[in-house]
Amino acid sequence: MVSLIVLIVLGISSLIGIYLTHKNSKYTMRVANVTLFLSILSFGFVARAGYIGGQIRHTELTTVGPINDQFKEAEKEDD
Question: Could you tell me the pTM of the whole model?
């Protein structure tokens, strides 16, 4: 959820930066620096969310029975 919020703030900051660049504002560089900081921050949050999501295991979805035995025999034939 935090990643989503940071990405939304990054998007808003990017839109403001585009608008200020179009208007040749004196605040363009400040907004660009804030946008750069937010992009690095959002990368960190999204990378952490991906890492935590990759650790989830669904052991209840394992196949037990004749289908699993067929796969094991096929692997033995490949060796």
Answer: 0.64
Residue 34 belongs to domain spanning: 2-78
How distant, in Å, are the alpha carbons of 23, 56, 57, 76, 77 from that of 64? 64, 20, 16, 18, 20
What pLDDT score was predicted for residue 30? 95
Q: Distance (Å, rounded) from C-alpha 77 to C-alpha 79? A: 5
Please state the domain count of the chain. 1
**pLDDT tens per residue, range 44-62:** 999 998 888 877 776 666 6
